[in-house]
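If you are new to this repository, start here. Below is one unmodified record pulled from the training split, so you can see the exact layout before writing a loader.
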Amino acid sequence: MAEKPTMSWRHGIAEEAEELAAGTLDPECACMAGLFPEELLTATDVVLDAFESELPGLGEDTDEKVFAVVERVVLALNTVNEDHDEAAYETGEREQLCDYIDQSLTEHGVDVVALTARHGLGRYQLTDKWRKW
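And here is the target side for that same chain:
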């Protein structure tokens, strides 16, 4: 099953905290907790949980229904990003979120390559129409 990006972000925060506690990381170099405040992680998880709830059976639905699910998750992530001064997700996080959406759809029977091709898009353009982050 695709792993939510928030899991790796939380893992990074925990690792950094351990390094700080052990004295192996200079506090001035610690950034994970600042980049990923709990409010951001929780809001992102709420969006991804809602997305996951729409996935069962999606591989059997029409392209329009699949795109509607993608649109909803992307717009909700846009809102999270807006709520965090348009700075919630940096390049690496954007890539992780897009990969997660792609992997989750694939795991639920959606052929993302075929879906996007039918609509004149490349695989990695799946979220572009709505994404502001």
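Two things worth knowing about this chain: The helical segments are 5-22, 32-35, 38-53, 63-83, 91-107, 112-118. Residues 37-125 form one domain.
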